[in-house]
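Whether sequence alone determines local backbone shape is best considered at the level of individual chains. The sequence in question and its structure tokens are set out directly beneath this paragraph.

***
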Amino acid sequence: MAKKKELKNLNFKTESMLNFIIKTHQKETIYAKPHLFILNKGMNSGKPQKEPFTNSFVVIFQNEKDCENIYFVAYSLWKTKFWQPHLVGSVIPFLRLNDFKKEFFIKSKIMMEEHEAHTKHIASLKLLEQKEKQFHENINLINDMRRVILHRYCNR
């Protein structure tokens, strides 16, 4: 009996950590609470982003910390092609809202249950994202330098 109560309390804590609303994004809607967008059409379905996509779901949170945590869960699912088996449609594949809600809630709950491992993964993903951004900035600088050198060389 006590073990059952502990499990019930554990589930309650987990569910309270995952307090968010998922719905279809309507164009020109402004959201006051922290939110993120999930692409729902095409082969990149499931891709999260802070800016709205034309065809997307919006996930609305109570606080910014939950939004950031779930962003990286969504990012991980997208990168690992988790949503590919859930796509329907023959010409332009898409995710159904009900399928997305069901699978996303289950998977995010599982991924966030081990909180310590989750925070380590999030920190690693943030670091990789930062390094990738620096890498792209360096590539852009190299390309700029190449253009300047070639411009000087050709305009002698």
Q: What stands out?
A: Confidence is low (pLDDT under 50) at residues 1-16.
